[in-house]
Design goal:
The protein is an all-alpha fold. It is built from 8 helices and no strands. α2 (about 35-60) packs across α3.
Length: about 270
């Protein structure tokens, strides 16, 4: 209280915020595991196991040649990795430290840095795992050909952004109804196993079933990603604009809700649990 606070320029404040976000992101990456390499291997193992399970299931049912004319591994990976990225981003942001966390007592830490670092840590781990597995398949097994890598990456980012934005809405509501928010978020992530469309081709889906899936932003990003991955697949029922608009809308609602909640936060909320 007796120290004189030197005034800093706006550029200096921006660089300070970016530096703080970087260090908080590193902390989030290492928080789940004491070793960053172990954290990466854990994410890779989840993706590999999920791809292997679906590969075995499709092989046993004799459906490997049915989905899309092209590399079946790319078909599986385009669904599995976007599904994992969306859910990991949602759960990471939902688990970000709130205004009553002890970390918030250390200036200049704030909830914006906490939320941003949680989302960026999820993106970093999933992107790194995706790249390592893709390169491993390409080198050790067989060459992987992707028709439009930029389009695939764009939908990968959309899956992450929409998951983080939805997680921010849940985070803003969490202090008011923690049990209900935890239940709804778990149901949503479990529902993504089917409603994301990663197990089937959207163009082959009957028209009367489309309304049960088109509400899900992950459904759109996975189908659009497959359109980018395969030269002979053209998505007819999905669009990239829907998950983008939904992500921006949820981001705005989540930021307003988080600001409202932060101003009324109390350490005694945890005592009610």
């Amino acid at each position: 209280m007796f120290q004189r606070q030197a005034k800093r320029s706006r550029v200096a404040r921006v660089f300070s915020l970016l530096s703080l976000t970087y260090h908080a992101t590193v902390r989030n990456v290492r928080k789940g595991s004491g070793n960053a390499i172990l954290g990466l291997l854990s994410n890779m193992a989840q993706a590999v196991i999920l791809v292997a399970v679906f590969y075995a299931m499709f092989s046993i049912l004799g459906m490997k040649g049915a989905p899309v004319r092209g590399d079946f591994i790319v078909y599986l990976m385009s669904g599995v990795f976007l599904f994992l990225t969306h859910n990991k981003a949602l759960s990471s942001v939902l688990g970000a430290e709130g205004p009553t966390s002890p970390m918030m007592k250390h200036a200049p830490m704030n909830t914006l840095v906490s939320i941003s670092s949680a989302a960026l840590a999820a993106l970093y781990l999933q992107l790194l795992a995706f790249g390592v597995i893709l390169i491993g398949v390409h080198v050790a097994w067989r060459p992987v050909e992707i028709h439009d890598p930029a389009g695939l990456m764009r939908n990968f980012i959309l899956a992450w952004a929409s998951g983080a934005a939805i997680g921010l809405v849940f985070l803003a509501l969490k202090p008011w109804a923690p049990g209900l928010v935890q239940l709804v978020s778990m149901v949503y992530m479990r529902a993504n196993m089917i409603s994301s469309g990663k197990m089937f081709v959207v163009n082959q889906l009957p028209g009367f079933l489309l309304p049960y899936f088109t509400w899900n932003p992950l459904f759109h990003t996975i189908d659009q990603a497959r359109g980018a991955a395969f030269v002979n697949y053209f998505p007819r029922h999905t669009t990239e604009s829907y998950p983008a608009i939904l992500a921006v809308t949820c981001l705005m609602l989540g930021l307003m809700g988080e600001f409202y909640t932060r101003r009324r936060a109390s350490a005694s909320w945890a005592a009610r649990q």
